[in-house]
Design goal:
By secondary structure, the protein is of the alpha+beta class. It has a domain of 114 residues. The chain contains eleven helices and 21 strands. It has a seven-stranded mixed β-sheet. Strands 17-18-19-21-20 form a five-stranded mixed β-sheet. A four-stranded antiparallel β-sheet has the order 5-6-3-10, with no helix packed on it. A hairpin with a 2-residue loop joins strand 20 and strand 21. The longest helix is centred in the last third of the chain and has 23 residues. It is globular, with a radius of gyration of 21 Å. It comes from Streptomyces tanashiensis. This is M1 family metallopeptidase. Keywords: Signal.
């Protein structure tokens, strides 16, 4: 994922950078074998959410239930729920509580909030055996922060990305309770199913992840019900958006939403690029599985940029367009093929930027050499977000986006175009709605050539 901005023109991209119903998760989830490493758990999550908005969509209240299976042979005694919406504000202040608040937990006993009030551990009512299912539920209150952000507001428009609590992952490396470092992403979730019912005033147009049906609610209100299968998160927006729907030649429904001040030329540019890229990426990497995709555009997101969520992308759009192609590429890299974004941010950002440059047919010959020296002796493509947060934020874009994309172009020159295309398509197929690691990708690339890629990984610092 990204909160940065990319356009076709390299000069615009670099300037912005330096500013720092398809397949279900149930069918795709891997089954742990006796000889395998501990499986990621809890898996096969199913989220059922019902929320009611106030008059302008600034406050949402209701209840959320999440059911899940224990994929580990060790009984599961607790689960961790991430309240990523609290990542920026933490535990709040007197009179200003955290934006996302949970209460009334059923199915377990909550511990005190941790990691800046972005992590809630719930001790289950009883240990959950291997392959058994259970659920927890809680009251949920969301207040949209007063800032222009992926979880924030822009005039009359509200953006609710990272607002819903999500199950954290436990795997061979243990519990994942990494912090939100304030830039990039720290997310790591397993694909699941969502049913989200949003009760809101008629005046609010509500784009959302998944397929959405709308019907009349109480007088002056509309109920928008969204269903999404095999996604890692759920996002929505609310406001007096203008809208238009088009269907790509490949059959993907694109729902465009934009604010009153967004450039009509920019909307047209974004739609054209979206139509072309979602179909091209479907041919290259595997058909887009969610049927429809919402494009939410605003000209007021300049301090934030753009951000992708499953089935919905938030775009800073000006007359020349936005980062729409990069964000759509993320539907495959992190959306379909998941990764631990805290420990391996290059696996989605480098891949999305490579796909973006490939779509625009950018001349990438020699781009690795054009990068010049590494920004430091310790820099590497496979550093985690903790490394960048420790006083090295200036390296993040230069390495993860720029060098990462160039490394993949360089690998394409080593393997050859057809072989690289086959590697990427196989990478997506083999980890469809699952989770990939750097080691997985290195194995797939090595299998495509008789050349020893060891020197390549060393030169490009892919460890």
């Amino acid at each position: 994922m990204t909160s940065l901005r990319y356009r076709r023109a390299p000069s615009l991209a670099l300037a912005a950078l330096l500013l720092l119903l398809p397949r279900s998760a149930e069918a795709q989830a891997p089954v742990e074998s006796a000889a395998s490493a501990p499986a990621a758990t809890p898996d096969r999550p199913s989220y059922d959410v019902s929320l009611r908005a106030d008059a302008d969509g600034s406050h949402w209240t209701g209840r959320q239930t999440v059911s899940f299976r224990n994929a580990s042979r060790t009984p599961l005694r607790s689960v961790d729920v991430r309240l990523w919406g609290n990542g920026t504000d933490g535990c709040g202040a007197p009179g200003e509580p955290s934006p996302v608040r949970v209460s009334g937990v059923v199915g377990g006993t909550p511990r005190p909030l941790a990691v800046g009030c972005s992590a809630l551990t719930i001790d289950l009512s009883a240990p959950l055996p291997y392959q058994a299912r259970t659920s927890v539920s809680f009251d949920l209150a969301i207040t949209v922060p007063d800032r222009v952000h992926r979880f924030g507001r822009d005039g009359a428009y509200r953006y609710l990305g990272n607002a819903l609590p999500l199950l954290s992952v436990r795997d061979a490396r243990g519990r994942h309770l990494d912090p939100d470092v304030g830039f990039g992403e720290s997310f790591y979730t397993l694909a699941g199913d969502f049913r989200v019912v949003l009760d809101h005033p008629d005046s609010l147009v509500v784009p959302a992840t998944g397929s959405t049906a709308r019907h009349a609610g109480a007088p002056g209100r509309t109920v928008s019900s969204s269903v999404a299968h095999g996604v890692r998160d759920f996002a929505w927006a609310a406001g007096p958006f203008r809208s238009r729907t088009v269907t790509t030649p490949g059959g993907v429904r694109l729902n465009a939403y934009w604010t009153a001040t967004t450039s009509p030329e920019g909307v047209a540019v974004d739609l054209k690029a979206a139509v072309g890229s979602v179909d091209e990426f479907g041919r290259r990497f595997g058909r887009y599985p969610y049927g429809e995709l919402d494009l939410v555009m605003s000209d007021a997101l300049d301090d934030f940029g753009s951000m992708e969520f499953p089935g919905l992308v938030l775009l800073w759009t000006e007359p020349e367009g936005s980062a729409v192609v990069h964000e759509i590429a993320h539907q495959w890299f992190y959306g379909i093929v998941g990764n631990d974004q805290f420990s391996a941010p290059w696996l989605d950002e480098s891949f999305a930027q490579y796909a973006n440059q490939s779509f625009y047919r950018d001349d990438a010959a020699g781009c690795w050499e054009d990068q010049g020296e590494w920004p430091s002796d310790t820099a590497a493509l496979t550093r985690d977000m903790g490394y960048y947060a420790d006083g090295r934020r200036s390296e993040y874009v230069r390495v993860v986006y720029m060098r990462g994309a160039c490394a993949l172009h360089d690998l394409e020159r080593v393997l050859g175009g057809p072989a690289m295309a086959a590697v990427l398509r196989g990478h997506v197929r083999d980890h469809w709605l699952g989770v990939a690691t750097t080691a997985d990708f290195k194995r797939a690339a090595q299998a495509a050539t008789a050349k020893d890629l060891g020197p390549f990984w060393t030169e490009h610092r892919i460890f």
